[in-house]
Design a protein that fits this description.
The protein has 412 residues and is mainly α. Helices cover 76% and strands 0% of the residues.
Length: 412
């Protein structure tokens, strides 16, 4: 992959170029085929970015703040979703550009990648990738002094004292040496990490987040909102999602990954129960003020609990738990699992809600959230405060008995 061959920075830059190109093509498209080409490029960019950015942030962050730094990726996404929802609602409400307002919505997608591209010269390469790449190219770490020196400089640039930077580089070198005889990604000793990582990504989607984000306006229409009102009111759940991501940035290090996820899932259960109840209520009270407010309140309750926990943790944990030598491929598999689940659920949700109604549909999703809670309790470890190499080293030597081995807590 690009991130393994050319580095994390080049992979992010590639995603920026794909985002910008896709946005332009979609905005100027004059037919379905060209629109599809632009959307395909943006989809490819999303895949590259969502796979690379959390990993890059984890590899560049001290253990004490790694969870918060990686969680900023999700926080930025939720803020972007809110801005996009506000823009869409504004275009619909004010009927901007008549029937061509969609071109504005798609075209402004060029702004964020251009801003990030402008800042790329100031971003360092991942020091862990530099050391790993030197090992891959030269066959021995001692034969790559230039990359080792660049890694040392990067650690110092990121805030480590010279002695601390040297200790970090030596630890990475030691781990990489041990990985020369490490098992393959699909070996039994790697299964605990893969199971936790892929499971979290799949269950994040099964808990219904993108059905709520993508189809909130459709659900609001079902309880009696007009098309225009549904688009405008869908801003509120998106706002709760963005705002409640912010306390998660603090809680991920204060409470830890595992407790925060468990609390989040319990709250998600209450939110989905409320959504189901409001769906049943609206069937006999469609168009009433009570049905409308019940739906809006249920959406917000769900987002209140989802955003700081299940919204952040799958990406954070997946950026931490894989050995450096397997990290790119394992992260790619986990990212693919997330987006494949997203696609499957997004395709199945509209016909399902049309066939059995919102009430029963959210009962099904509630069932998935209960299964997710059981999965987290059994298989997902705590990685708070662990040096990245300790997390991966303990997993690589772990047992596939349903109880992930944890590393030793060390100071950052």
């Amino acid at each position: 992959s690009t991130q393994s061959t050319w580095g994390r920075r080049w992979a992010i830059l590639t995603a920026d170029i794909l985002f910008a190109a896709g946005a332009v093509i979609m905005a100027i498209s004059n037919g379905f085929t060209l629109l599809l080409v632009g959307r395909w490029l943006v989809g490819l960019a999303i895949g590259v970015a969502s796979m690379t950015v959390p990993m890059y942030l984890a590899e560049c962050s001290p253990a004490a703040v790694r969870g918060t730094v990686v969680a900023l990726f999700t926080a930025s996404c939720t803020m972007g979703q809110l801005i996009a929802t506000l823009l869409t609602a504004g275009i619909v409400h004010f009927e901007v550009a008549g029937g061509s307002g969609w071109r504005i919505m798609l075209g402004v997608g060029i702004v964020p990648p251009l801003m990030q591209m402008a800042g790329m010269p100031w971003l360092p390469e991942s020091p862990r990738w530099l050391i790993w790449k030197g090992c891959q190219e030269h066959g021995a770490l001692a034969k790559s002094p230039s990359m080792r020196e660049e890694a040392l400089h990067t650690f110092q640039r990121l805030g480590s004292a010279p002695s601390k930077a040297e200790a970090e580089v030596m630890l990475i070198e030691t781990v990489l040496e041990s990985e020369r005889s490490a098992p393959s990604l699909l070996s039994p000793t790697m299964r605990p990490a893969l199971r936790a990582g892929l499971g979290l990504q799949v269950f994040q989607q099964l808990c219904g987040i993108n059905t709520v984000m993508y189809f909130s306006s459709l659900i609001l229409e079902q309880v009696g909102f007009s098309d225009k009102q549904a688009v405008e009111w869908s801003v509120l759940p998106a706002a709760v999602n963005a705002v409640m991501t912010l306390p998660g940035l603090w809680l991920v290090e204060r409470l830890g990954r595992r407790p925060l996820t468990i609390i989040s899932l319990v709250g998600i259960g209450f939110g989905l129960s409320a959504l189901s109840a409001s769906g049943f209520y609206s069937e006999s009270n469609k168009g009433s003020a009570a049905a409308s407010w019940a739906a809006i309140s249920s959406f917000c309750l769900y987002m209140f609990f989802f955003a700081p926990g299940m919204g952040l943790i799958p990406w954070t944990v997946n950026a931490e738990i894989y050995p450096l030598g397997h990290r790119s491929l394992a992260t790619a598999l986990a990212t693919m699992a997330n987006w494949a689940s997203n696609a499957a659920i997004s395709q199945s949700f509209p016909p399902l809600i049309g066939a059995i109604g919102a009430g029963y549909t959210f009962i099904i999703i509630l069932g998935f959230s209960i299964v997710t809670l059981a999965f987290v309790l059994k298989y997902v470890p705590e990685t708070k405060g662990l040096v990245l190499e300790n997390v991966q080293g303990s997993y690589a030597g772990g047992r596939d008995d349903g109880n992930p081995l944890l590393g030793v807590n060390e100071s950052a």
